[in-house]
Amino acid sequence: MTRRIAIIPARGGSKRIPRKNIRPFAGQPALTHILKAVEASGQFDTIHISTDDAEIADIAAAAGHRPGFVRDAAIADDFTPIRTVLGWTLREFEKRGESFDVAALLYATAFFVDGEDLQRAALQFDTAPDRPLLAVTDIGMPIEKLFIEQGGHLTTLDAAKFGERTQDLTPALMDAGAFSFFHAADLIAETDGGAPLEFRPFRLDRWKAIDIDTEEDWAFAERLHAAGKTR
After folding, report:
1. Does residue 151 fall inside a structural domain?
2. Does 169 fall in a domain?
3. In what order do the strands lie in the sheet with 102-106?
């Protein structure tokens, strides 16, 4: 039987949005929303909040998921790749006699992901568990139509194709900032958590894919939630 663990990173030292992992969103600490989605999915044997922060651990405990151990301070900085954190976490569980086949990374501010999304993702991952799965969304614009700013003016990645029909160009996808699935043994064995991987895509609806890194992102998520309640 496949054993799955959901790991939700929630360190205390977030910089751009201080304390964002437990900042109130829709009347609850941020991370409780993804916790409810993980619970509703029914796909995970263990749910682990990876944190170095006592207050975050207490909030996780109040939601029924007190961490069995805290994250090592050496990997609770701004620079440690998140896959390095996942591998370290899985090795810590092995020291305690627990092992898993699948590890899912879920972000504490993936407010609009629900249990059904995670059910579908788990099923899709299981069709080819040797390759990781990343939640992505279509940005609604081909790569060749995107601009970058250089020297105060806008330029495109491929000017020769800029005038072509949109439907003839390359659809662009972006990381949804929501979740990913991995073969746990690969994370444990990995020596470079920042190396690129060949992910398979799991497509999320665009409105669910808000990667919250700034106050503007947060405000947009609040407006979207309010609009949903109005509907």
Report:
1. no
2. no
3. 46-50, 4-9, 102-106, 171-183, 133-142, 200-203
Number of domains in the chain: 1
**Matching residue, tokens 């996942």:** 86
pLDDT, one tens digit for every residue, the chain (231 residues): 899 999 999 999 888 999 999 999 999 999 999 999 999 999 999 999 999 999 999 999 999 999 999 999 999 998 999 999 999 999 999 999 999 999 999 999 999 999 999 999 999 999 999 999 999 999 988 988 899 999 999 999 888 888 899 899 988 999 999 999 999 999 999 999 999 999 999 999 999 999 999 999 999 999 999 998 654
User: Which residues constitute the domain of residue 12?
Assistant: 4-135+175-230
User: Three-state SS for 144?
Assistant: helix
CATH code at 54? Answer: 3.90.550.10
